[in-house]
Write a structure and sequence with these properties.
The complex is a heterodimer.
Chain A lengths: L1 H33 L2 E2 L8 E2 L3 H7 L2 H33 L5 H13 L2 H12 L5 H8 L14 H27 L2 H9 L4 H12 L1 H17 L2 H6 L11 H11 L3 H27 L6
Antiparallel strand pairs in A: 1-2
Helix pairs in contact in A: 1-13, 2-13, 3-4, 3-7, 3-10, 4-7, 7-10, 10-13, 12-13
Chain B lengths: L1 E10 L2 E11 L4 E5 L6 H9 L6 E6 L2 E2 L11 E3 L11 H11 L4 H15 L14 H14 L4 E5 L7 H18 L2 E6 L2 H7 L2 E6 L2 E6 L1 H6 L4 H6 L6 E3 L5 E4 L5 E3 L3 E10 L3 E7 L9 E7 L9 E5 L6 E3 L2
Parallel strand pairs in B: 3-8, 3-9, 6-7, 7-8
Antiparallel strand pairs in B: 1-2, 1-4, 4-5, 9-10, 11-12, 12-18, 13-17, 14-15, 14-17, 15-16
Helix pairs in contact in B: 2-4, 3-4
Classes of the chains: A mainly alpha, B alpha+beta.
Chain lengths: 290, 321
């Protein structure tokens, strides 16, 4: 009886499992293996080189540059978009008129494809004809070259990312807010708690499970989302706005070094796994789950 | 102490509360009683400040609180769902309001100790609401309301989520606590037994309007309207006749005897201590054709059996329809 049940369960799992293995687990293992090998050219047979690729990576200034960029990119976009998402969710969850239009407006960036979004923002950021600089010109300021200036390129990317991500995270917070009982708020109000106190002591702690989920996703996205780089900066100028995944793409398909690209990939996967693990272990105990 | 004067509230075209007026005296337990949808919960919310009345005024200790925010009214409230903060410990739940109102720490501690003693929650202070039973959650909600030492405590069907046995226990306990602490309470319920057994006075509502405000005994023995007569008491009062000659008689006041008016048995419903006999009195004329008789003890009359019934004239109520 038990055996038959197991067989059925495995059969039901099979479709999903085969895709997962074919497109996730197998490539991961293959990448890990590849990161320990090297070949002189595409046609030459690859040979095991141990940690040589990793040695190369440690000495690669571009890797350290993109890694640092990605760190600041995450630091700059994740907390801001989460904070904005909470504020927007609280706003559209309140009983004011026209909230459905607001919700739509906040969510629009999410439904637009990243490439489209990047093209729109490319126009916003253009040095002379761009929206931002035209607006600045109205008040007599000569706007900078947002994407061309090494000091501004990464920040400009961050602003667009926050705009894109906040609406997406808002949906999760909105869903969580709507499960909270209005009687809790009535009780808190009657007890004389201020709006800020209610947020700090009740809403925010009760949103923590959502925050953990959003936080992990936001950090993953900070490493995963690079579509806009293709349109906006291509990592430039001089790698100032380059991010890890885009560098991997360049290494693999522009410089055609799939061995080094595999090494970079393994480092990125390990980084993400460690971050997710730390978050879960640190935050899980502090979160109240219903 | 509390004076509610002609408050009304409509949702769209639906008038939920219509010109409601009543008062609560110091230390008094007033029940807002009525069937579902009669507007009693909305009335309570308006007193709490969670809803704003369309018209009318609410005065607490002579101060107009009609437009005041809920927090400024300094009332306490026990909710039907308890409304405990699920992520906070019992202790934090009870002290939430005192912390919000910045009561000094030592005063908080003193009040917490005494209230925990009162409701008997000593072992559970460090637990979260999810680890407590329904009855214990009810006690936490009660403690949170008592600890505020508010002038007036509002209770919105606080016992309706408990099982029957626990409900009876808590009923006695809440009433005892209220009398011991001299609390002024407005208690919303649809359960006439709760209202009758706990309240000093009952505001009976129907369709958003006050039907009758009286002490429980008067509501039972001197109902002013047919609605009151039929709402209070179980089974409800029998209404015989119509128009000028509309009379009411409670099932427990009807006697089955040798002589009297003719009636024939339709069915019998045995309840343990008594039997409810459904009888046909169409011989008596217009009005209700079937009446209920509460017969003490166990009696199984056969259907169609002829009975003679009578009642004392002082137990008969007259209504004008």
């Amino acid at each position: 009886m038990l055996k038959r049940f197991n067989l059925k369960a495995w059969l039901l799992l099979l479709p999903a499992l085969s895709f997962l293995i074919a497109f996730t687990h197998w490539p991961t293992l293959k990448s890990i293996w590849r990161s320990f090998t090297w070949a002189r050219s595409d046609v030459a047979p690859s040979q095991f080189v141990g940690f040589e690729n990793y040695q190369l990576l440690l000495e690669d200034p571009v890797f350290w540059k993109v890694f640092e960029n990605n760190f600041w990119y995450a630091v700059g976009t994740v907390p801001t978009s989460i904070a904005l998402a909470i504020i927007m969710a609280l706003w559209v969850n309140s009983k004011i008129r026209g909230t459905s239009l607001l919700r739509l407006a906040f969510f629009t960036p999410t439904i637009l494809p990243m490439i489209t979004v990047a093209n729109i923002w490319l126009f916003f950021y253009s040095p002379q004809i761009g929206l931002f600089n035209q607006l600045l010109a109205l008040v007599g300021i000569e706007g900078p070259n947002w994407l061309g200036d090494p000091d501004l390129a990464l920040s400009s990317l961050m602003v667009m990312t926050v705009w894109k991500e906040a609406g997406f995270f808002m949906i999760f917070y909105l869903a969580a807010l709507q499960t909270l009982s209005p009687e809790l708020y009535a009780a808190a109000k009657l007890e004389g708690a201020s709006a800020w106190r209610i947020f700090r002591k009740i809403t925010f702690p009760l949103l923590m499970p959502t925050t953990l989920f959003v936080l992990i996703n936001a950090i993953l996205n900070a490493f995963k989302l690079v579509d806009h780089l293709f349109i906006l900066t291509k990592g430039g100028p001089n790698n100032e706005s380059n991010l890890l995944l885009y560098y991997i793409y360049e290494t693999a398909f522009s410089f055609l070094d799939s061995y080094y690209a595999a090494t970079l990939t393994v480092v990125m996967l390990a980084t993400l796994a460690v971050i997710a693990l730390v978050q879960m272990l640190l935050l899980d105990r502090k979160i109240h789950y219903r | 102490m509390l004076k509610v004067d002609g408050i009304s509230r409509s949702y769209g075209d639906l008038k939920v509360v219509d010109q409601l007026s009543f008062t609560v005296n110091e230390g008094e337990f007033v029940a807002l009683l009525g069937p579902s949808g009669c507007g009693k919960s909305t009335s309570l919310k308006m007193i709490a400040g969670l809803e704003v009345p369309d018209e009318g005024s609410i005065h607490l200790d002579g101060r107009d609180i009609t437009q005041l925010s809920p927090g400024d009214r300094k009332l306490a409230m026990v909710f039907q769902s308890y409304a405990l903060f699920p992520h906070l410990k019992v202790e934090e739940n009870i002290l939430f309001g005192l912390q919000a109102r910045k009561v000094p720490k030592n005063e908080q501690k003193k009040r917490l100790d005494s209230v925990v003693e009162l409701v008997g929650l000593g072992d559970h202070l460090q637990k979260k609401p999810g680890q407590l039973s329904g009855g214990q959650c009810q006690r936490v909600a009660l403690a949170r309301a008592i600890v505020a030492q508010a002038k007036l405590c509002l209770m919105d069907e606080p016992l309706s989520n408990l099982d029957a046995k626990l409900r009876n226990e808590m009923r006695t306990e809440i009433r005892a606590l209220q009398q011991r602490l001299g609390m002024s309470v407005i208690y919303v319920t649809h359960d006439q037994v709760e209202a009758m057994s706990m309240a000093d006075r009952i505001v009976l509502m129907n369709d958003g309007k006050v039907e009758q405000v009286d002490v429980p005994e008067a509501l039972y023995s001197k109902p002013k309207t047919i609605f009151t007569a039929q709402f209070i008491g179980s089974p409800p009062m029998n209404i015989i006749g119509s128009g000028e000659d509309c009379r009411g008689i409670r099932p427990e006041h009807i006697e089955i005897s040798e002589h009297g008016m003719p009636a024939s048995v339709v069915s019998c419903d045995y309840h343990g201590a008594d039997t409810i006999v459904l009888a046909d009195v169409s011989a008596m004329g217009e009005g209700q054709k079937l009446i209920k008789i509460r017969y003490p003890g166990h009696a199984m009359f056969a259907p169609q059996q002829r009975l003679a019934i009578r009642w004392a004239p002082e137990n008969e109520h007259k209504f004008l329809v």
